[in-house]
Please model this.
Amino acid sequence: MAESHDHSAHIKSVELERLIFFSDAVFAIAITLLVLELRVPERAGPDVGVVLRHGLLQLIPRMISFVFSFALIGIYWFVHHRIFRHIRRWDEGLIFRNLVLLFWIAFLPFPVALNGAYGDQPIAVTIYAAGLMMTGLSQLWVWRYASHNGRLLDPGYDPRLVRLITVRSCVAPLVALLVIVLAWVLPLPWMANFAFGAIFPLQRLAVKRYERGAGTPRSD
Amino acid sequence: MAESHDHSAHIKSVELERLIFFSDAVFAIAITLLVLELRVPERAGPDVGVVLRHGLLQLIPRMISFVFSFALIGIYWFVHHRIFRHIRRWDEGLIFRNLVLLFWIAFLPFPVALNGAYGDQPIAVTIYAAGLMMTGLSQLWVWRYASHNGRLLDPGYDPRLVRLITVRSCVAPLVALLVIVLAWVLPLPWMANFAFGAIFPLQRLAVKRYERGAGTPRSD
Amino acid sequence: MAESHDHSAHIKSVELERLIFFSDAVFAIAITLLVLELRVPERAGPDVGVVLRHGLLQLIPRMISFVFSFALIGIYWFVHHRIFRHIRRWDEGLIFRNLVLLFWIAFLPFPVALNGAYGDQPIAVTIYAAGLMMTGLSQLWVWRYASHNGRLLDPGYDPRLVRLITVRSCVAPLVALLVIVLAWVLPLPWMANFAFGAIFPLQRLAVKRYERGAGTPRSD
Amino acid sequence: MAESHDHSAHIKSVELERLIFFSDAVFAIAITLLVLELRVPERAGPDVGVVLRHGLLQLIPRMISFVFSFALIGIYWFVHHRIFRHIRRWDEGLIFRNLVLLFWIAFLPFPVALNGAYGDQPIAVTIYAAGLMMTGLSQLWVWRYASHNGRLLDPGYDPRLVRLITVRSCVAPLVALLVIVLAWVLPLPWMANFAFGAIFPLQRLAVKRYERGAGTPRSD
Model:
């Protein structure tokens, strides 16, 4: 796949923009396809009103799954946004790792649908959380590759900020791992999903700890 | 989520463009997915021509819903276009509020389908109008955040124009509220949808009133 | 919808790019959604191989419809490309007419599916050709609006080239009209679709006639 | 289709960017639509857990097909990326050939679904490999057209690099041809798909051979 055998990084260019654009499009399509799982109840039976109300009630778990998943893909998009803000150059290694990340993003509508339909089965919650974990790990992989010794970063990068982004990127995969454990322990597997809410305070904690470690950190 | 604890706004940059691009993609996908609700009638029975004509007649409410919804998402896109014309900087608060707006846009294909299939049920029309109302309110939220004390606007912004955009952005949510009320009052709930037509003269009225208040307003 | 009551055209800007981008996204999504009509035959029965071969044979009309429709949307995209090459400014009238065009583009997957499933019914072929005709007429509407007295064009525009684009843009809607007539006259309605092939020589004729009218016309 | 009868190539411009953008959007949509073939098993029967586990096991061939196809479309996107890195100008011939390539990209979700559902039937594997072969051949067609005598390339192009890209672009179609042959020879047709793995070492070989032929080749 490599025409150049040394990993000489190319300078920021229209190709980096194209890479970001392609990623954004995949994120946008995956996040918008989620809604296709919210199927309108079949019109049937003598009392349409009852059928509709019953059908909508049955959709509630899928709705919750939709909201959660939109939020999580939204966060991953936002993190991708933040990571690429610091990247100035690209090479084939970056493109490959980014494609792996996009694979997991494009795959997400499936585990989301599974979680919406089988939230009472630990295996469905596990696949859902595992999908989100793989997404997070791929993103970490992209970032580790780009930031290792500042390989593809702006030359004036702040090593503390790089570490902070690394630590923060570990939070979501770790929480997803916790969700998997909970899915097998809790009596109602879908309740494990609520553990995803822990992502926010934990990230805040990471930011706090790093701030205490040094004076005023440079803003991201 | 915040690496910077003061909400220091960043200058207009490639990231703002990426935010706009991502929003445009979600708008474009949502508006194009609407057509998936127009399902071709199943080929069956001895007289295919009759089946087809009958099936097409039954699709008419969905077609009307399709046209209405395309127009309304088109208007929201256009308003997003206009709002971001005045925004010069961004911060995480803007990204968050814009993601909430995109959530409602990405969700719209579901209430549109519901309205098309169950237009005779007040609850379906209510969910449809509520979805459009939440979209409008989220957009208002984005605009209020960006324009409050000119936070993220071009420094030379015109306060009267900001107020005009605010007033105009209230029209669609208020009309959606009216649709909800009508859906429960009218004998045929789907007729409530026609109240959406009131958006255009009411916006014109808002523009007129503001124009009377001052000399020649600066063009938007 | 108009904050400015005189149709003062804005100079070419990031907004025009956003308009083009949004249009491109709708074109790309509509053209890619066509494939969803090519459904894989259900796996059933004792002899899977026979089921598959039989199912694939039955898909042939849809395949032909897919190829035709891809080509026609591709042409419309290309014409959009060419029209906007000459447009330098925008106003709300252009945005409105372009949204009408995008409505017809986003709608196309439905008549395409109809044509694929009911090619033996003149009404299906009619709806298909009418959808393509409306798309072409909307595009003509965009172009007439933009080019009238050179309203939104580059100041140094060539009036003969403008007329040539106008004439060429009339070809597809006229051929679609012919297809509608043929669908009711021919014994096999789907054969009417082949008349779309007339678009190419007729456009070439238009180019030739204009070339004869003057010396070397300026290249488009 | 041609307003200009001589194939005068236009200089690199916003139109070339629009062409690339449109292509990227089609790639992104096609690659993301693949997931729609991974349908969640129907919830039914008394023991939901057994139904789910059984359903997931049955999805495995589709999953493998999904992973393979994502990788192959990803590679084609990457090659498109690389080809257009060298193209500086465009003409209608390039647009036409690129539309043909996009046709095959937009078509791919169908053979992918076929391969996932009927991997045990040589005809399904053949259609799948043929779809990938046509995609590769179209890409080769784009590249041959653009690079012939350096027609649309940067004037300072490296002829050896052009040849290298040509040779490398032949690898995927040739391997697809091999897959077709194997699908009819092997007892289990879906095993033929694994031959796609040969793409990577063969491309590396091509790079090696060209490197031996000259000193240090210019990096791509």
About this structure: Chain D is about 70% helix and 0% strand. The two ends of chain D are 34 Å apart (CA to CA).
